[in-house]
Fold these 2 entries.
Entry 1:
Amino acid sequence: MSKTLRHLVDPLDLTLEETLRLLDLADDVADHGDAYAHKCDGKILATLFYEPSTRTRLSFESAMMRLGGKVLGFSNASSSSAAKGESVADTARMISCYADIVAMRHNKEGAPRVASMYSTIPVINAGDGGHQHPTQTLTDLLTIRREKKRLDNLTIGLCGDLKFGRTVHSLIKSLVRCENIRFVFISPEELHVPSYIIEEVVKPSGCEYKEVRTMDEVLPELDVLYMTRVQRERFFNEEDYIRLKDSYILDAEKMKLASENLIVMHPLPRVNEIAVEVDDDPRAKYFVQAQNGVYVRMALILMLLGIEPGLFKVESTC
Ligand code: NCD
């Protein structure tokens, strides 16, 4: 096998074929976890989190531990040398000496890309500002595929903060590669999908899409409803956040309008956008989605480290 260093900074760093192979591996990890318990014995994952996180960081750490590996890192920029002014490039060089693979979350768009240019170990983008979140996308794809049994011929509603929501940007980027995906973008005017995503990603793909301001009229036509939180930390002023934060609230009454085959997803954390009463609806899949995050991260670690095939060329040895 010829191995060149691979990173996952943008969802398109994996081809569709590689993405599907990774989901296959994640399915196997979900079904036969014990078989993977020692695959990463002796390996170290570094989690460098300059921004808050619960699920992403802990699911990465859980993933590595379930593979038999160890973890080190920080969950707060103020406890790292960033507080002394160290550059991302220097931190990436250092961490390459201490770990075998690194997951980085940063408030600055592009920071994980910079890290990947200086690192000698695989770098995984665990969310960069309002930009991308490719491992959440893998989690979302696995959830859709496990629940709907397909990744094509779907009408997908994305609702909430489509402007700052990085999970939305990454999911759109990855899904446009699947057959016959139709998007329904549900957001207030101020939080609509960035025009670069519409112009450079959605339109060239030929995927059908529409933008609407209210949820009720489109609920019956959706196969998937992907709810998102209004991203308070990315607003310039608190007044705008307060005005927009409760734009959409999915509750039991609204769920009556939806198809019985709908699945409701959310990358979490939720604030008010899904009423707690929806949790008991069998169509609510956001906690299953969070569980799937561990399986895809286990699969990703295994593939980026070359322990499981799928990302590197197999060369004939004759
Ligand atoms: C998301 C994120 O960090 O972008 N959370 C996550 O990783 N599951 C969504 C959010 O914070 O709203």
Entry 2:
Amino acid sequence: MKIILGIGGGIAAYKAAELARLLMQQDHQVQAVMTGAAQEFIQPLTFAALTGRKVLTDLFAIESAIEHISIAQEHELMVVAPATADLIGRLALGLAGDFLGTLYLAFTGPVVVAPAMNVNMWQHPATQANLETLRQRGHRIVEPDSGYLACGMTGPGRLADPETIVEAILLETRKRRDLEGEVVLLTAGPTQEPLDPVRYISNRSSGKMGYALAEAAAARGAQVNLISGPVHLPAPRGVELIPVRTAAEMREQVFAHLAPATIVIKAAAVADFHLSHVPAQKVKKTAARMSLELDPTPDILAELGRKKGDRLLIGFAAETQNLVPEARRKLESKNCDMVVGNLVGGADVGFESDRNEVVLALRTGETIPLPRASKREIADRIFDQVLKLRLALHAANGH
Ligand code: CTP
């Protein structure tokens, strides 16, 4: 594959040399492009020697004024590593003041961005907003690692390993429209079970994981029906959103939309209990104590498990302990093909977070941990595994 390697001006620029070497080893053709700041950290000659090509550095020193257009057209993927806070900002704004910025605007293929910077710069809302812009544009962000940083601080900001960046590049190229023809039925968010006209029981689910799954499925060409409990998230582009409130309403909509579905994913945090007879008026504070008698809600996933046909059925297990055994238990008891187990209740992953760290329990007996990444990234990896699982189950059934 013909890859543009954009190198920003950070201390991690030296790691881009290792990335270039790995890509060359895998028979890719690599065109290095360095910003002015990158050249302060590492000599273009290093990349010229590694890639066997002249490194592009200066917008005005190239032979033809429109060379950036032909270079953009010739290449199949652009990876920017390290992407500094400044470079991310310039890409987000579409500034074309140097060769890399110009090339980025002229390039229409997939873009992988691997940030590296000081932890405070990484966590700054400006940086995060710029990254979100790039994500919305469909670029794959390779999250930085946590650890000791060159600035002496410890935390997220260290450029991901070159091997991880290569893996992200492979995922990006394989991704394409590989869910075309699939009809994905998704549930997301919490449910609300009313206690009276003004009160309800619910949980901390934000819906972010389910919405990320909907966005990823739609981006990969699937038709997506998203049945969502009450959340504060915009409807993902290209997705049919069906808002519901209670577990009973969610069940009704799931079965109303089940027939055409080829993949069903139950990411919703469904309330397990509800009040069967909700008072018509607000309950008054008449007694010193009160107790509630609740009845179980329908277990939608278990019912789906009994009626799944040859659909792929994926459940979630939100746990505070015993993640893998609980995920496996739910896989069996609810007749799922995969259960995504995630630890909830912690500070940085799970319910309200933008990031997650999950483990996939598969019907094939495999257990696959997915290391911490953005929920959008995790969503893509879940679909990669769903497609693999389909192939494995087909092979096992002798198709
Ligand atoms: N689920 C469902 N209907 C319910 C409860 C759960 O469809 N009434 C689904 C969830 O959408 C999720 C999976 O079942 O995909 C597991 O949910 P979870 O709350 O973790 O499990 P429970 O079966 O409720 O088990 P427990 O509360 O014992 O952990």
